[in-house]
Amino acid sequence: GLALLLKPDGTVAPLWLPALTASSLRQQLVGHDEASAATSYLGAYDEWRQNQRDDSCRDRWFTALDTTTRWLWTVLMGPLVAALAPADRATLIPVGVLGLLPLHAAWVEDVTQPTGRCYGLDRLMLTYAPNARGLIAAQAIATRQIPETLLAIADPQPVKAAALDYAESEVAVAAAVLPMHQVLSHGDATRDRVWALLPDYTVLHCCCHGYVNWAEPLESGLLMAGDKILSLGDVLELRLTGARLA
After folding, report:
1. Interatomic CA distance for residues 76 and 103, integer angstroms
2. pLDDT digits 0-9 by tens, 10-49
3. Alpha-carbon distance 150 to 25, whole Å?
4. pTM flag (> 0.85)
């Protein structure tokens, strides 16, 4: 593995990650045989996604998540955090299947922490970008757009996926930050209504399920009421230029 560190002064420094190999990454994601596939990161997640009311599936997914994020600290985030010191923030641009993993949640044992763990987010304020060009474009929007209006989506219903127990509490906290806001909850969060309102708000907060379409990426999106998908293609069609934060 190789991380390229782009520093504020414009210089680029390479950070080699010898333990991050294609084979080790594949084993974490999908396992090395049929027996290990069920306990791999993607295998356990897919099983839980299809059986969200099955406690054993949930437990296997949480175990796989815990194992993978601990592994991520050893092979990637630990060396990266050390190399970025004394910086207090960084934007991650993971390439390929690394984009499927919660790099910010990588952890290592730390008895000085209340949880007994130190997470990536304990060391750095981490954000993500799809690529450097997208990051530059977002920074340009941020310089000219004031975050003053909020559209919040809270647990669209009905959907086949499990209800999100704390969605309304989360959205209430987000809405309290900006007095000018609109909250669409449950049956009000329809695909057509949300799509029509998106251009009118500078901050978008969506607490809902998401869906990835591996074969047709533009059909990936957010799950709205009635199991309707607000797709990436739908959002791109709007050509949004005023969204300060999503």
Report:
1. 8
2. 899 999 999 999 999 999 999 988 888 889 999 998 898 8
3. 38
4. no
